[in-house]
Write a structure and sequence with these properties.
36% helix, alpha/beta, 9 helices, 5-stranded mixed beta sheet, globular, Purple Acid Phosphatase, chain A, domain 2, 6-stranded mixed beta sheet
């Protein structure tokens, strides 16, 4: 039994029934064998507010998380850049913890800092300005108050804008900045695990406090990539129904 399973960027959407089905299978199979599951953001392709929880496949994914939690697995969710309006009320209803940015957890005997990863892309100044704006309490309340159809329309329009903006940026802007990583290692983490960049990789860092490791996750929605944390360390895996 893994001590923990960590994944990110499932991007579940009503536009991708097959992807949502793979996520549901993963939550009801591999994840049930773990003591803890950490979802590092972008579980959904977008999230405009609580009204979205009424519709498929979002309701099914949330119900699967609720079932996982009731079965004894501790589930933690970290806001991504697409589903940062998931709130404490929804978390209580479906039995998971929610984190806005990051936290440090003891995993496999190591102090692991977990986050979505956008906070480590510090060169993307324009994105971080937008991030602060759209995460303000007033913006959140306005989004939650919209009728479901209007909320979805706004969310889809924002996704299109974001996609065009991302396509125009260089890899230097979009990538994880080493300085940001080292700043977080200086706070006491032995390991950092993040998603966001959709690239499965392991990077070693040498610091005054010793050797540290950064794990970046692949996009679960694309390739089923996740990290299994065992007594002997961290291992990249692939969801069973995507291995063919």
């Amino acid at each position: 039994m893994p001590e923990a399973i960590i994944f990110a960027d499932a991007h579940a959407s009503a536009d991708d029934a097959a992807g949502a089905s793979r996520l549901l299978s993963f939550l009801s199979a591999e994840c049930t064998r773990a003591k803890r599951v950490f979802i590092l953001g972008d579980l959904f392709d977008f999230w405009f507010g609580p009204k979205q929880a009424r519709y498929a496949p979002y309701s099914a994914v949330l119900s699967a998380i609720g079932t996982l939690s009731r079965g004894g697995t501790e589930v933690s969710f970290f806001h991504g850049n697409r589903d940062f309006y998931i709130d404490d009320f929804l978390a209580r209803e479906y039995g998971f913890r929610v984190f806005d940015d990051c936290c440090i957890e003891s995993i496999s005997g190591r102090r692991a800092l977990l986050c979505h990863g956008d906070m480590l892309c510090s060169n993307d100044v324009r994105y971080h300005c937008m991030r602060r704006l759209i995460r303000r309490p007033l913006t959140r309340r306005v989004s939650a108050a919209l009728p479901a159809a209007a909320g979805e329309c706004v969310a889809r329009a924002f996704r299109r804008y974001s996609g065009r903006a991302t396509a125009a940026k260089s890899q230097w802007v979009l990538g994880i900045e080493d300085k940001a990583v080292l700043e977080h290692f200086a706070k006491g983490a032995d390991v950092i695990v993040c998603g966001h960049v959709h690239h499965e990789a392991t990077r070693a860092f040498s610091t005054p406090a010793g050797d540290k490791t950064l794990y970046t996750l692949g996009a679960f929605g694309r390739d089923g990539s996740y990290l299994a944390c065992e007594e002997d360390g961290f291992h990249f895996m692939q969801a069973s129904d995507m291995s063919a």
